[in-house]
Design brief:
Layout: E1 3-9, E2 13-18, H1 33-39, E3 58-63, H2 73-79, E4 89-91, E5 103-106
Length: 119
């Protein structure tokens, strides 16, 4: 399976993705949750630009986490600094789903960019 969806909560937005057609990105690994969110106009804070040098893109993968390879030592080190760490926590810039199943990703309230350009 290469086509899959990611449902972002609490905004309840679902995006479609294809693990066989990863687009290059400047923010996070190609095909990462961060890259897919940004490509679909879902703003996630990522102070380091998605290079695993901070924990601002911390999310919780509450379904489908088996489709994401285990966190690297570098990601684990950065997650140790994240607020509200849980067993479902991942850095969106590093987590690249393999397309084997759909995901549900919860964006913690402190990581949501609620500023609107229209205001």
């Amino acid at each position: 399976m290469s086509r899959y969806s990611i449902r972002f909560l609490p905004m309840d937005v679902t995006v479609e993705a294809d693990s066989d057609a990863l687009q290059e990105t400047r923010d996070g690994k190609d095909g990462s949750i961060l890259a897919l969110a940004l490509a679909n106009h879902i703003q996630l804070d990522h102070a380091c630009g998605g290079v695993c040098a901070c924990s601002t893109c911390h999310v919780r993968v509450t379904a489908g986490k088996q489709s994401i390879p285990a966190a690297s030592d570098d990601e684990e080190d950065m997650l140790d600094m994240a607020a509200g760490l849980t067993l479902d926590s991942r850095l969106a810039c590093q987590a690249v789903p393999d397309g084997s199943c759909d995901l549900v990703v919860e964006v913690p309230d402190w990581n949501r960019n609620l500023v609107s350009e229209d205001q």
